[in-house]
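User: Can you write out an input/output pair for a complex, sequences first and structure second?

Assistant: Here is one pair. Inputs:
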Amino acid sequence: MLQVKNLHAGVEDKGILKGINLEVKPGEVHAIMGPNGSGKSTLSSVIAGREDFEVTEGEILLEGENLEDVAPEERAHKGIFLSFQYPVEIPGVSVTNFMKTAINESRKAKGLEEMPANEMLKLIREKSALLEIDRKFLSRSLNEGFSGGEKKRNEIFQMAMLEPKLAILDETDSGLDIDALRIVANGVNKLRSEENAIVVITHYQRLLDYIVPDFVHVLHDGKIVKSGGKELALELEEKGYDWVKA
Amino acid sequence: MDLKEKLVSSFMVFENRVDIDHPVHDIRSEAIKQFEEKGFPSKKEEAWKYTSLKSLQKHDFSLFPKEVGALEYKDVKKYFLHEIDTYKIVFVDGVYSSFLSETTHDGVDVCLLSAALSKEKYAHIIERYFNKTAAASDSMTNLNTAFSKEGAYIYIPKGKMPLKPIEIVHFSTGTEAALMVQPRNLIIADENAELQIIERHQSLTKNPVFTNAVTEIFAEKDARVDFYKVQNDHKEASLVDNTYISQQTNSRVSVHTFSFGGNITRNNLNYYQHGEHIDSTLKGITILGDKQHVDHHTLVHHQHPNCESHQDYKGIFGDKSTGVFNGKIIVDKIAQKTNAFQQNNNVLISDKATINAKPQLEIFADDVKCSHGCTIGQLDENALFYMRSRGIGKKEAQALLMYAFSNNVMESVRIPALKLRINRLIAEKLGVDLGFDL
């Protein structure tokens, strides 16, 4: 599904990613771990198409298609979803209206009619139940005044609504208490299927108790320095990042 | 002959059209003298530093249209808030249109200034209020006063409230190659009265129009007035809008100004507080493109203790447009416990757009809460990326952000149908169809 080949990227003259290779197949869950500043968030932003970063070498392929020069919104239409570490507040635009806009923009891009209102309502109801989100929450302004947990839950709710092929969860566990973490992880697990893939980016092993990965990669100084199964995460937790830096 | 000379010499012609024995005519005569002395404001004056009316003075404006264009309601329906029932005071090329209007004298007076000036029963009100807030003013107000004869006259007696909002709409039809109009509105909410007004200036062709309007609003004790100005005119239409508000104890007056269109627009909005526990609200959303120019010049004069003012102006400037915000707050020494707030936030979406922002606080009291915040920035790239990563196109994402940016101002609009209309105008102005009603 996703192939990242020898990816080099950075801002201005500063290289951040220095030759990343990664292959994610349908149905797989990959975890990317690494210390602060190793390039985890940059990798997720570059895959989602953030224009602030310049890709200087290598390529990203989604289902065999090169994503070079593909705008972020088009990547979303093709099935990439990025859950933000710090979701943005948009006063005056309700969660529901934001979702309607996102879904209909995506349908427009695919040449489809707007989703009928009753269908949209049904979908919203179904997906919000998955994340234990109540109706009042949906009419609030997007992320405005949301707690850390609410923001992350809302991110996964959006993921559920948009049904991406490839979901990248950037530090989804940060700022979550254990209950919120469980709800978010449950939501993600229910969305797992043989057709989609998930990349979990995290600093700590904690989230991986709930979202169990098939593969774990350790990122250090812009390169994947170690890959393995889920046991690698435990080993890392035990030995610390200095172990892989050596 | 330049426009100033033309105006001054036309005063005699004007005198043939009005009752020169009416006491108001003394006020007019004095005003034309003032105007003759001062002339049009120039950029040398501090208050007009960023707005030049020079380009307007080259047109040969008709001052008294020979023929008034005929309008069918269906052709202009879209400029009214037709989704709800309203009273309407409508002027076509400066002349009252009874055909398009819906006035009333049923418990409240929603009618014409010309009627109020000609009928004896209004004389005491005219004497008490006319030109009382606008007297010591700049030359544009003097000019309007000199030629004041027509406009809206609204009087809401004690404890009354009209059954529906009032629309004041000025159309110009383009029958004249270039037209100058000077509407004069007098609005009085007596004790504990309440009213809502929506005002709009709309030209129907691309012929140049220059409107120099004066509105005086008097809110007596406990009165409440909400005034909404919709400025979305053609690119050849210019407007100098002078609004003077006089408030008594415990009254609340709000003015929302939505500036999306026009060529040169200058809004002079002046609040004078004459009692305690007064609330004055001034809000605006400005969205400009092309070479449009909008200048918001506000004044809030706190002259008594325990009053509040809330000011919030948002501006979005594209292309080569220019914006000016000059917000002056004066707190007299006696006006202790004043709460005065001023916000002015601007977003530049083009390298060639300009904003000149100038907060001016003159505080002579020592126990007050005054705050002002002025920002000029670009749209948040992180927020744009967030929305785009959810599949929302760049333009739509920008529009949503701009909408979010101006949302604070929309929150206090108390007529839902108007709110919806403004939201649609914003979406239209930003060139997006978001698939839902913002």
